[in-house]
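Here we describe the complex-level prediction in full. Unlike the single-chain runs in Section 2.1, the two entities below were treated as one system.
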Amino acid sequence: MTTQRNDPVPVNDFVDGVLKRNPVFVQLLGMCPVLAVSNTARNALAMGLATGFVLLMSNLVVSLLRRWVPTQVRIVTFILIIATFVTIVDYAIQAISLDLHKALGAFISLIVVNCLILGRAEAFASRQPPSRSILDALGMGTGFTIALLSLGAVRELLGSGSLFGVRVLGESFQEWTIMMLPPGGFFVLAAWLLAINAWNSRSFRPPTVKEAV
Amino acid sequence: MSGKEPGSSVGGIESGIAGADPGVVSPLRIYAVVLSVGVLCSLAIVATYEWTRPIIAENRIAQRRRAILDVVPQADSIQAFAFDEEQQSFRPVPENSDDGGLVFAGFDDSGDLVGLALAARAMGYQDSIELLYGYDPASESVVGIRVLESRETPGLGDRIETDEDFLDNFKRLDVRLADDGRSLMHEITFVKPGEKTEAWQIDGITGATISSRAVAEMLRESTNTWLPRVQSSVDKLRLETGGGSA
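The structure predicted for the assembly as a whole is:
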C-alpha cells in the first residue's frame, strides 16, 4: 500500500502514520485492543506504547532480515519475531507495575494478533530499508497511541469523571457508567470517526464540486 | 535516503532473496532461516525472563503485602507460616517462601495476633482467580477479600473486585467452627443475587454468576480446610523476632 510512493522526504513516513494513514481512525486496524483497553486514559496510553514498541522492534528486525527470509516462510518468521517482542513487553510491564499488567490483562499477549503489526511488517518493513521502517513504525505507533488516548480520555472523563485517575469533574457529575463498559468503546469510536470524516469531507468538498463543473 | 536501495525492490511485489525465483529456494535454506530466527528469538526471551524474574518476584511480594494489610488493616507486622502436614502444626517461614498454602498472621505492635490472611485459588470464567481473605480469629469471621490475580471479563466478571454489594458479603462472613473444631458449623454457600438470608451465605452478582460463584467456592474450600487448622493452633502463632516487619 505504500509502495507507490516516490516521495523523497522520509519524514512523510512518520506523518502519514499519524494522520493520513492513522491505523485506527483511517485504516480501522487493531480494533480489539482499541475497544477493549481504552476504558481509562492510563490503560490506553500503556497499551499504545506497548504496541508501538512491538511495532518499532518488529519493523526494524523484519527490515534488517528482509533479504534473507525466503518468501515462503516470511509470515511465519514475522509472527515469530512479533511474538518474541510481545513476550518481552509482557515481562517488562510485569516488572514495571503488576497493577498495570493486571489492568491490561490478556490484551498484552494479544498484541501478537494485532493485524496492524503484521500488516506493517508485510506491507512496509519487508520492502524498505531499516531507516524508513523505523520512521514508519514510529508514525504508526504514535498514531495508534494518539487514537487510543483520544478514546481513553473521553471514556474515562465521561465514565468516571476523571483523567489519568485524577478527578476533574465536580462531585455533582453523574458518571456514565456505560462509557467504561465495552459498549462505551463503540460509542466513542463512532463519535470520533463521525467527527473526523465530517471534517475530511468538509475540506474536500469544494474541489470535487469544481471538478464536476 | 533519496534513491532506491539496490535489491530493496520498491514498488516490486516481493522482497524475496535477491535474484532468485521464489519458487526454487532450497528447503534447506528455508529450514536454516526459520530455525535460526527461532533460536535467536528464544535467546531473547530467555534473557528477558532471567533479567526481569527477580524484579517481578519482588513486585509480587510487595503486592501481596499490600493485599494482606488491606484485609488485616490493624496489623503492624506480618509473619508467614507454612503448615506441616505430619506434625499438624504451623511453622514460621520467610515471607518470600515458595511453599504453597501459606498463612499470613498480622500482629500489632505489642505482638498480639490481630488477624490472619489466607490465600485461595480456583478456576474462574477465563483463567484461575487468586485472592486473599482476611480472617478474624476472635469473631471467627471472614473480614474482607482482595483479588490478587484474575482475568475475568472486563466490565462483567471483574466486578468481583469492584462491586460494592458483592464485597459487602465479605465484611462479616460467618465461618464459626462446629463444637468439635474439625469442620465449619455452616459451610459457606453461594446464593442467587438478593437471596442472602444467613450470615454464611454469599450473594452472587447478576451477569457475573460464574465469577462470583468461583469466589464463593474457593472460599468454601479454603475455609473448610484451613480454618480448623488455624483455629486449633491460633495460640501458638507467634511473631518471629527480627523478621517480617511491615
